[in-house]
Design brief:
The complex is a heterotetramer, with two copies of chain A and two copies of chain B. By secondary structure, chain A is of the alpha+beta class. Chain A has helices at 11-19, 55-70, 101-118, 138-145, and strands at residues 2-5, 27-34, 38-39, 42-51, 75-81, 83-85, 90-98, 121-127, 130-133. Chain B has one domain: Beta-grasp domain (Ubiquitin-like (UB roll), Roll). Classes of the chains: A alpha+beta, B alpha+beta. At the A-B interface, helix 3 and strand 8 of A face helix 1 of B.
């Protein structure tokens, strides 16, 4: 399941919802991304996430489908927030459930790596010196490229 | 044709959405970007380095040589920074 | 922090506790292991976890220290339960907090891989056909061995 | 000397803990295991394949050639299945 929302989420509730009534799940991996208080040397007062409504949902759904195709997963949850967030606020949650720990952890890593460069979000950091768009990082493309299969397409 | 801008492409241009009539002879994403450049300083600034601009046609990631036509929804934006 | 306990844990509460008041954390990876309802073809009615009080705490503390040495981590939490558990019950929680997603996910994987073969727990599965000790699996040793450094010692 | 048993080592022997006086000449984990084997059917069954038995001396993982002495806490158990 994917959700694109302005509101915060409760990890405990989401995970409990996933495992209640499914006693076949043996392993649950999750990842939470949070707004950090500093960008380099400068304090961040807030971060605004812009996104592309419609396309965001399509991309996240495609991402979930790809993870389910590659790993033996019983459930997948991706929640991505947009709007104005403060330092310490949660931005994104990825949870994967599998009979096996390897599949859950690896697919969780895959999903967050791909979200970085394939989910249509753009981050604007507000600082005392003004607002600045977060630049994409070369290492994020490298991380995402690890998952591109030669057999793709 | 509906054109959407995001991230610093949007903030440089000054708005995030516009309805445009595709001029004759413009039939790819690359052609559209080239034409938009001439529409004012904000556009020129947004597309000064067109190689880094990413595009989506009808909400699908599309390389710059992708064909476009009236009725398409085209989005132009910097590399995504999700997650 | 490490905790060895009979009681269940609440992932949301644990994660919130970790991130409250620490806005430097950018990435939080977690892993939850659960009691599965089947072992091969046979339904499990319950699972009893035996452990070695004293040594368990020592091993988990050592494990936490090792993870902190290897990765840039702001916090580590390991909770391991013992006693009688039912299918669907949570067994273990690992949470790692870092400024970077790679460090959090990798260290989380390291911790759960090592727990499998280095935490003094033994699992007894109760089934209709009787109780059976869970056997260690070769692949768990292989997974743990990935993390043994040539420079160790 | 306090000896602890866990997992199927404990269930085969029938108890998880005992206080023993180390016999003369027994000064390693391997020696202890060999001697325990002769203490009855449960012990013999528990240690039938001594290679798979893991040991801890004073709560530290210890190979079979580890020296032991009166006052040590020795634990014998199957491979751990944590996590």
């Amino acid at each position: 399941m994917i959700r694109v929302q302005g509101e915060d989420f409760d990890i405990g509730v989401e995970i409990a919802r996933m495992t209640e009534g499914n006693t076949e799940i043996g392993a649950l991996a999750s990842f939470v991304g949070l707004v950090r208080d500093y960008a380099g040397d400068e304090a961040i007062t807030s971060m605004t996430l812009e996104h592309y409504p419609g396309m965001t949902e399509k991309q996240l759904e495609r991402l979930e489908a790809e993870a389910r195709k590659r790993w033996d997963l019983q459930d997948v949850l991706i929640i991505h927030r947009y709007g104005k967030l403060m330092p310490g606020d949660r931005i994104v949650l990825v949870v994967t459930a599998s009979p096996h720990r390897g599949a859950s952890l690896e697919s969780c890593q895959f999903l967050i790596d791909w979200l970085k460069t394939n989910a249509p979000f753009w981050k604007l950091e507000d600082m005392d010196s003004g607002a600045k768009w977060v630049e994409s990082r070369q290492e994020d493309f490298v991380a995402a490229d690890r998952w591109v299969r030669v057999t793709d397409g | 044709m509906q054109i959407l801008y995001f991230g610093w492409v949007r903030s440089r241009i000054g708005h995030g959405k516009e309805e445009l009539k595709l001029p004759a002879g413009i039939d790819t994403v690359a052609g559209l970007i080239h034409w938009l450049k001439s529409r004012g300083d904000g556009y020129a600034h947004a597309f000064v380095d067109s190689d880094v601009i990413r595009a989506a046609v009808n909400q699908e990631i599309a390389p710059h040589n992708t064909a476009i036509a009236e009725g398409d929804e085209v989005a132009l934006f910097p590399p995504m920074t999700g997650g």
